[in-house]
Amino acid sequence: MRSILQPLAVALAGTLIAASPLMAQSAMRAADARPGATPAATAGEKAADPATPTAIGGGGGLIVGGIEVDVAGKSAIEARLNGWREAQREAWPALWSRMSGLAAESAPRLSDSALDSMVSAIEIEREQIGPTRYVARLAVIFDRGRASSYLGRFSNLVTSPPYLLLPVLQDAATRMAHEPDSPWLQAWARLRAGESPIDYIRIQPTPGDTILLNAWAAQRRHLFLWQALVDRYQVADVMIPELILERSWAGGPATGLLIVRFGPTGRELGRVRISHPSGDIAALADRAVREADRIYVAELRAGKLLPDPELVNLDGDMTGLEDSGPLIGGTDVAAPLVLRVRVATPDDQALQFFQRSIAGTPGVSAVRVQSLALGGESMLDISTSLDTAALRLALDARGLRLDGNLLRRRVAGEAPLAPALPEAALPGLGDQPGEDMIEESPAPQAGRPRSLLPGGGA
Hints:
Shape: elongated
Oligomer: single chain
Structural class: alpha+beta
Radius of gyration: 35 Å
Strand content: 15-25%
Number of domains: 3
Helix content: 25-40%
Largest sheet: 7 strands, mixed
């Protein structure tokens, strides 16, 4: 830590003591943009943007963020150094509690020199610098190797499988998920990977992802579509933290209700009400992110954050695996037939009925949604090892009627399809079905064996 702070203190010592607050803040930003350089050397360069987190030091590690400090000093430099040291003292108990699962008060008491040896960087999230006062929100980055000697048996952090994050925000009558202007989505993007044992999969949404992962998807209880999303993003399950904003008036106090859910069924893990007196939505969202992460981590430690087994291999048929290999000494097995059909889907229950009925049909290996139109007609792809005629009979046995490429329910009173007769049993070839297909061979003459050669030779 001292190696990080010393060049900055030397570079700014002669300037900030007698400088005005505005000049002091400008010089500090210039030093942040280029550590180790004097303000004169960076006068022609662009100062660091205070809205953008600036990393001082380097390297990834165990991160504890969102630490608020408000300290004073004899000068701007001393106030800033005091703020950084205060952040280290507050970050260590938080790190101990996160790694061990124990209370922060049980953390070992460490000296400032021991904390300096563990801290590899300090990241400035927001700061305000005065002549003798320093107000900031900081993130402290601990070196994993050095911190492990103080963490002991808690140094090996248990991590979760990858989970898809679907943050839902409700602001008045508007519901958003992966829309770029969502402050709830932006708050989750500010959460660093080293701050939590949960492996959150936060995607950079394309226009197609914005449609697939919209706010309506959080209320969807359709396992087939969730399985397709899990397979698309290569995750184990889905996390759905929902934040409902309530504003008193424009620019006034704001309140948020955080509902933490997990899995495609939306299993609720907890609720937290968060308020901010000045109506800073970004600060409220950042606090809600940490509350949601705390609930998810607690569930992970309790062994309750397990992936839904129904999301894996929903459309697989394990009974058909024994005959799926190539024939020995022959040709490979033919590729399955993929038949695209139209089904009427007035609601989600109708789509589930068709998918479950088709998936349970003998000879069908998979059924996938090609296009979804609730209130109209959806397209389904059926993968089967049967031909079209055999598939039509198999579906009919399940109460479904396939007319061309239209699949519908068999109406009451409609007779089921008759099974196809074998060619040997087709009528019209004799007086009785199959009579002319039977050929009687004459009995061999006594004492003389019948020849099997052409022409009947002996």
